[in-house]
Amino acid sequence: MAYSRALASTAILLAITWHTQADYEALKEKVLHPHFELVQALRAVPTKAAADIKTKVSNIKTAWQHKATLQVAAALTTNDEDRIRAAALVQTAEAYIAAQLTSLNEQTDDSLQAAAAAGEGAGTITGSTKLLLTTSTNTNYCLGDANTDNSEADVDSKGCSDPDYTKPTPAHKLTEQDIGPTGFQRLGAVTTGQGKGASSMCGFFKHQATTHSSACLDITTAKPGKFLYGLIKAHNDNDVGREDQSAINPAGKGTTDVWQRIHSQTLRILRLQTPTLSKDRLQALEELTKQPAAATEIKRQIAIQQNKKSVSDITASDANLRKLYFDDNNDKLPAFLEHINNLKAPIGVDQSNPAATLKAIDTAAAANQVLEFSIYQLKQKLKQATAIVKKQATSIKESEMDETCEKKAKKITAKMGAKKLLKATKIKNA
Asked: Which of 38, 52, 96, 164 has a CA that sits 20 to 30 A from residue 414's CA?
């Protein structure tokens, strides 16, 4: 039925609700404030859509239950007035159910997809920021600002130490560049003094006490068409983002123009003008999960979601975690999670070296790995959400089946009663 199809379409909406409140609080505190407001605005669309549909489904199921109870009451009561009242309430319940089903049918595929696109936008920024915040474990590396002109070393003063998942490291000085609808479009290693933007600032960098013009990783986008929203820091009103790379601000205009462009692009998302994920990307995710470091990354995510301080606080065995989150059938795996532990991650940190220098990385592979991991997380949550939706749909069908069986039983009972009455009448007349 149409309403069941509409219900199934909400799986993607449920899939983006996994980010914890702590993630949003971290964004609010550590990322440029208008960016946080944009995330909240995007997230509100699918959250409301999913809530509305779930409420309607719940109301329909409740109405069916009441209707069945009233039908039984109407059949069993010996009081004519009560029977009439119960029958009238049954009709009221039927009218209510019909209205709710019509309302669900009016939730068109386009509107659901628009809500899903908005939710994916909100999920991408929180998921990517979470990934960046939690995969750097060396004390000499972090996400933040080194000593700048104000003589304030944010890296030292704001939590750049061994990872404490209850206190995310700063993200407000992330590189002035774009993240696309499916994650980072390109992630490149940059040598000292080569970073784009004011004073060679960039996202991940080797902390130096007196300068932030150090070797770092530079996040860029390959095509303006992939633009979703940017992680931006305003250097001043005339220089926002990167003049030579940025799709959001190619002319280096002021902050007002930049945010107007962000909101116009957000409207494009809501109108379904974002590219869809390619099939081969999704298939590649199935190869991800049996890498040696997969269980470690699961523990990282659990630590974040459960407000734990470190991976060591998660006591479940690696085998059980893999089985729980990845099943047993994924046997073609790229090396992303293994790269994290083998110091080949997009972060490129050599944790075995006390001096901590950036490793050379293949930029195309690094970008693909970040992208695949981001999609992989969404896919796992989508899988869980789909199971929930299917369960709800099954429950609705069972309710329909119960109602159909009840009607058939009544017809049979009525026929049997009529036969008995006819037989009794014949006997009496005889």
From this structure: 96
pTM check: above 0.70: no
Q: Are 247 and 178 in contact (CB under 8 A)?
A: yes
Residue bearing tokens 């509409």? 6
As a whole number of angstroms, the distance between CA 148 and CA 154 comes to: 9
Amino acid at 388: I
Residue found by looking up tokens 């990307």 in the block: 281
Residue 125 CB-density burial (10 A; 0-12 exposed, 13-18 middle, 19+ buried) = buried
Q: Please tell me whether residue 205 adopts helix, strand or coil conformation.
A: strand
Question: Per residue in 330-346, pLDDT tens?
Answer: 432 333 333 322 322 22
Q: Phi/psi of residue 222, each to 5°? A: -80, -35
Q: Give, as one character, the DSSP assignment of residue 183.
A: B
Q: For residues 153-183, b (16+ Cβ closer than 10 Å) or e, as one string? A: bbbeebbbeebebeebbbbbbbbbbbbbbbb
Residue 199 zone, left/alpha/beta (φ > 0; ψ -120 to 50; rest): left
Query: In the chain, where are the structural domains located?
Result: 278-361
Average pLDDT, the chain: 44
Q: What is the pLDDT of residue 314?
A: 73
